[in-house]
Amino acid sequence: VSIYFALYLRKEVDNIINNPDASSIASTNQQQSGSSSDICTDNPYMLSVNETFEELHKASKMWLTNLPQHRLKAADDQYKAHDHQKFFPFESMGTCNEISCIGGKCSADTSKIACGISNLRRLDSCIVYSIGGNNHWEFELDILEKTNCEVHTFDCSGPVQRFVKPENDRLHFHHICLGATRSAGPLAEGKPCTREKELCGETWTMTDIQ
C-alpha cells in the first residue's frame, strides 16, 4: 500500500479507493495495453527501491486486479483477530535498498519501518503524512530530527482534548481521519463523543488531505 500511494498520481489513488471494482477493470486493460502513464515519475522513492518503476507498476496493477479475491479471503473468521495475520492481503510490491526503523528500536510498538530516509535528509523541505497516531509521537519526533520534513498527523479517534501535540513548528495535528468518502463526525453533528475508539472527528479523502 505504501509503495502504491508513493508510486501513483493522486487521481489514480482516489479512483481506486472510491471505485475499486471499476479500477480493477481499468487495471486489467492497462496491463494488456502496457500503459504506465499513471506513474508518478517525480518521486523521492525512485532512488530507494531496487526495482524499476515499471516493474513496481506491473506488480501493483496485478494486486489491484485480484482485489476482489483478497477481500473475499479477508472475510474469513481466522483473519479477524487483532494480530499481524490480518494484513496478509498486502503483498510486497518491491524491495528497498535502505531500510530504517523510525520512532524507536526495530520491532518496538512505536517504531515504523521506512524506506529511503537518507534521500529525504537531502531535501530542503518535504511533507510526511502520519495516519492514526493515537497520541503517540515517537515516529513524528524522529522524522523531525532526521529530516527537514513537515509532519501532519491525522487521527479523529476520541475527543480532540486527549491529544497533546509536542511543541514544534514543523509538526501539525489534525482531528481528522482518512477514508474513502468525506463525512462529518458526531461532534460536527452536535452529538456527544467521548470514547477513545470512537471516530469523533471528520473523515476526509486523500484528495481533501492533500
UniProtKB/TrEMBL annotation:
Residues 20-39 are annotated as: Disordered. InterPro entries: Methyltranfer_dom (IPR025714), METTL24 (IPR026913). Pfam families: Methyltransf_22. Residues 89-181 form the Methyltransferase domain. PANTHER family: METHYLTRANSFERASE-LIKE PROTEIN 24. This is Methyltransferase domain-containing protein. It comes from Skeletonema marinoi.
